[in-house]
Amino acid sequence: MKQFSVCIAGGGSTFTPGIVMMLLDNLERFPIKKLTLYDNDEERQSTLGSAIKIMMKEQAPDIEFVYTINPEEAFTDIDFCMAHIRVGKYEMRELDEKLPLKHGVFGQETCGPGGIAYGMRSITGMLEIIDYMEKYSPNAWMLNYSNPAAIVAEACRVLRPTSKVLNICDMPVGTLRRMSQIIGKEPKDLEVSYFGLNHFGWWTSVKDKEGHEYLDEIREYVSKNGYLTQIEVDTQHTDPSWQDTHKKAKDIYAIDPRFLPNTYLKYYFFPDYVYDKMDPNYTRANEVMDGREKKVFSQALKIVEQKTAKGCGFEIDAHASFIVDLARAIAFNTHERMLLIVENNGAIANFPDDAMVEVPCIVGVDGPEPIAQGKIPNFEQALMFQQVTVEKLVVEAYIENSYQKLWQALTLSKTVPSAKVAKELLDDMIEANKGYWPELK
Ligand code: NAD
Ligand code: LMR
């Protein structure tokens, strides 16, 4: 079987060790000859890189392994770039979450003002790594799961329309795992229909390969329990704040019980609830910094100190194996059916062609072919149109250095109560994001 050369951009990410272990666990399906970690933060990269190097020597000595902050070294002769960067790191995520609270609005990584601020930062970082990839490996594909994926995907559509970048999110994958538990199936045995934007969508069908529909059974469960299940399906979505989100799906579901909702709709339907539950001194960023980040980096230091990764506890991110499914689909033309964020072009019949939507696609050697989802109801269509316009305005504001358009984006967001609050928030966000955002005029 062909062997591939892979670069992980954001090599100093808290997810990197789990993703590397997942790749090692999937070598039979997706053989790797060279693995490179690339980050623009030397300290984070060398801490994780030196630990993973020890692990690679022990577990996969035949794979060439490199970690670097040099883009030419990282992106030369690669087949795939798996991208999970966080521009501004956790320090800025914390501000995205805490600053809106001062204005009576909740703060979140990808939704509302927090997501808009993060989006304005991410576009620059994403363009940078896409350009490196195209310069040093013009035939490579980027599999991107850096957030906020909706804004990143729209920026790619407008600014890098011919680049081979696929934007994918792990949330529908995680929720499908929960659904499969509810009905006693394996996720790989299920096929879904879904329409929406990233972090803003609905399942309309969950069938097994024989065509049996499970929607009613899952609806019955979700109407009582949300997506809260007995056994945890991954390590990422198990912290207390996530348990609340899985449970809250019950109330989101009640608004339109025809479909099964994405958990992130909580932020748009219940912003007052989210705001009231938030602790201004301790948000999700703090939960991750005190949890996953501390754990991963202390494990790395221990591995380096002991000169062995044996018994040192990096955990396989099995949940992330959808990234291998996506890479395989392109590399081996497997025609895998997956949810991706793609240009609509009629996939949702009554929605603009140029909107970046999340729908099932068949993925092969030339990338994704979206599967038509037909017409959607007025309620969902109106909500999606409002939200996609916010995302488009953010990208326009970025390109045109437009204060006006970013103010409009915040004013239009369902999460912000008035144009006055939007303006006050924007002025604070500009201050906080100096050096990360283009200068707005
Ligand atoms: P993290 O802060 O631990 O890691 C991100 C890394 O990116 C950091 O080491 C940082 O230095 C690096 N980075 C920032 N800008 C860069 C640039 N221009 N070039 C190279 N490296 C750069 O963050 P994390 O919690 O591990 O999350 C990483 C990303 O993955 C985030 O964007 C997060 O939102 C995303 N994520 C996506 C999904 C999904 O399925 N879509 C799921 C979970 C996390
Ligand atoms: C994470 O940091 O785990 C996320 O990217 C999603 C979240 O808020 O948990």
Automatic annotation (TrEMBL):
Q: Which cofactor does it need?
A: NAD(+)
Q: Does the keyword Iron apply?
A: yes
Domain of life (superkingdom): Bacteria
Name the InterPro entries for this protein: GlycHydrolase_4_CS (IPR019802), Glyco_hydro_4 (IPR001088), Glyco_hydro_4_C (IPR022616), Lactate_DH/Glyco_Ohase_4_C (IPR015955), NAD(P)-bd_dom_sf (IPR036291)
Q: Where does Mn(2+) bind?
A: C169, H199
Cofactor: binding comment: Binds 1 NAD(+) per subunit.
In its keyword annotation, does this UniProt entry include Protein transport?
no
Which Pfam families does the UniProt entry name for this protein? Glyco_hydro_4, Glyco_hydro_4C
User: In this chain's numbering, which residues are marked as the site (Increases basicity of active site Tyr)?
Assistant: E109
Keyword annotations of the record? Cobalt, Glycosidase, Hydrolase, Iron, Manganese, Metal-binding, NAD, Nickel
- Can you provide one Gene Ontology molecular function annotated for this UniProt record? hydrolase activity, hydrolyzing O-glycosyl compounds
Q: Which GO terms describe its biological process?
A: carbohydrate metabolic process
Glycosyl hydrolase family 4 C-terminal domain boundaries: 194-416
Active site residues per record = D170 (proton donor), Y264 (proton acceptor)
* PANTHER family tied to this protein: 6-PHOSPHO-BETA-GLUCOSIDASE-RELATED, MALTOSE-6'-PHOSPHATE GLUCOSIDASE
Q: Which family does it belong to?
A: Belongs to the glycosyl hydrolase 4 family.
Task: Output this protein's name.
Answer: 6-phospho-alpha-glucosidase 2
- Source organism (scientific name): Vagococcus lutrae LBD1
